């Protein structure tokens, strides 16, 4: 059961280079314009709090054991939920996060091979609410792109971090796990064909039917 809050929670997801960051700021402005009486909070994972940002530095650079990596991702998420996401949703705000738990299933699960049972346990532990429900985004916008196109886009703009150094096979597994999650929870996900131009994608995002 997914919990309900006065606020509204949107996550942006996709493999590295799929185009999330290109659209997130305009999407925040769009939401602010469409819902002027609501505050819009933009945040990211891993990160979003001072501790989470410190953990991000470690997670994106330091080599570590797979379980350690998953536990640190969820530790950063617990802090993010407690300090930022839950208070904002309780206050009726719109929270827009660059990645959330689907990324752990896709990267630590699909990509690196951590068991889905362990990830389910962590999700229940970190996102569980006193009434037994799970804190989940109301809407997840998944930018879907083949690994080789994402790799070509990334290589034009920045030096790779630990995850971005992974090979195409890894990113294909990450992508497939995202698609599996999207199929399993099709009401929550909106799938974007990220091979389209930014202009076409932006039109699509503007036409999303969002009711708070
Ligand atoms: N639809 C698109 N078509 C072509 N190029 C794009 C498109 N969307 C984004 N790009 C370009 O691809 C590169 C990566 O985009 P962006 O940084 O938005 O990806 P991202 O999904 O946020 O990546 P990461 O998750 O690693 O931060 C940028 O140079 C961006 O300008
Ligand atoms: C939340 C989360 C993230 N990751 C990975 C995915 C990306 O490679 C980086 C974050 O970088 P971005 O440029 O800000 O997208 O972290 C992960 O492996 N697991 C997670 O739960």
UniProtKB/TrEMBL annotation:
Reported EC number(s) for this entry are 2.7.4.9
Q: Name one Pfam family in it.
A: Thymidylate_kin
Reactions catalysed according to its record: dTMP + ATP = dTDP + ADP
* Single biological process term from Gene Ontology: dTTP biosynthetic process
Q: Which residues bind ATP?
A: 14-21
Q: Name the enzyme's class.
A: transferase
GO MF annotation terms: ATP binding; dTMP kinase activity
Query: What positions does the domain Thymidylate kinase-like occupy?
Result: 12-201
This protein's source sits in the domain of life called Bacteria
User: What GO cellular component entries does it have?
Assistant: cytosol
* Alphabetical keyword list: ATP-binding, Kinase, Nucleotide biosynthesis, Nucleotide-binding, Transferase
Purpose: Phosphorylation of dTMP to form dTDP in both de novo and salvage pathways of dTTP synthesis.
Tell me its family.
Belongs to the thymidylate kinase family.
Instruction: Please report the name of this protein according to its UniProt entry.
Output: Thymidylate kinase
User: What organism is the protein native to?
Assistant: Polynucleobacter wuianus
